[in-house]
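Q&A log
Question type: sequence-to-structure
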Amino acid sequence: MDIDIKILGPGCKKCLETADIIRMVAKEHGLPAQIEKIGNTERIAEFGVLLTPAVVINGDVKCAGRIPSPDEVLNWLEKTGDREDRPI
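Response status: OK
Response body:
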């Protein structure tokens, strides 16, 4: 199952850099990800986010108002993947 990743932001340089980092990390580590960019301010507000760029993974806001590091993104994606692989 793909990891659902949403990048929230109007499309500024920081938002684009955040998207690039997430795509790079997912690709380099072979992690299945469905990445969606959301630029609409009303949709962004639905997540309770006041600062962009923001990253939402499987419905959880992981960061807002800053560009995450590649290591941080990898940590989030690996933890998310671990939860999905566990038997119920």
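Response note: The chain has one domain: 3-85.
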